[in-house]
Amino acid sequence: MDLDTAKQELEQFIPHVRNISDDSIRKMAGRDLMRFKQFKKQGIAVKFGRFSEKENNQIRKNVEEFLLITGIDSAEKLLFTSRYPEDKETINCLKAEHHFCEKLSEGIPRPWRLIYYRARKMFDPNNYKGRYTKDEKEKLKKYHALHGNDWKKISEMMSRSNLSVAMKYSEIKSAINYGPWSKEETQKLMHAVKEVIRKRMETEDRNSLSSSEKSHREILMDCERLYQKLPWTEIEAKVGTRYWRQCKQKWTTILTKKMTKGQQLYRGTKRLQAKINLIKRLYEMKVEDANEVNWEELRYTIGDVPRAYVQAKFYKLKVSYPIKTPFFFFLFFKEIVDYLFENKLPELEEKL
Predict the structure, then answer these.
(1) Residue 104 · residue 120 · CB < 8 Å
(2) Which residues form the Myb-like domain (predicted)?
């Protein structure tokens, strides 16, 4: 399949495919296109964003079955083959012979690359190793000075995952301010967001949007382009004094204030009513996992606000009324919503 045809066929599943590198598109055409077509026949859309518990379980099942088929003795050897140079050739031959790509992605309607990254995160024994000590932070700065952004090499030297060392370095590379935002910092944040959105719009213009599509895009600009899928690590670098998560939270606050024209949506009786509405709507949706919630639709339950604002309010609601069990944070999303509906909703309605 030629490159243009691959782009055209993939575009029906991945709208932003023309922003992806040609090399990645060729790989997706081989690994993903046939799977995507099969899922489409079943009425299943290609998914992005956070993995659900069901998808995580499917990845575990796929990895365990592949280990049984091949006799490879651990998920670490399968997914981090370079750590075992003496077994590398044998493992790679087994992966090719038994179609590792196809087996790992079985039953999961996502691009193979994202499934592979998720599996590596789940099965990396160097992941989730707790807080960094002061000594580890100093070592991380030193290793970065020597090896730059070679996170694979640095992760091996520190016995931490690639993602962990990259994110931690992003946090400690410069002095981070944890106090109130200054006027100058806020202006830098707003300028940074404006710049990345402008670049994105210019890219879309080059990808030949029709005049009617451009007009429609301008209408949608205020309600979704200002908060969906922004490159927060890039914005963090432009602000310079704040960690990316702080930038995201601050931007949500700014945008909420602008979209609501400064109204206090979450104060007094409005606060109680918002909680009640949120619990009711989540319960009515009857979804099993938080990743299945249409937060974009749900945001109107509280008001014309960014969906990140609604997600944050649900998280606060969840931790404010924990179920009396030490395993609260391991419960499924539906169990938490059912608990809130059955036990906390009557209390809130009475209080209102």
Answers:
(1) no
(2) 124-172, 173-255
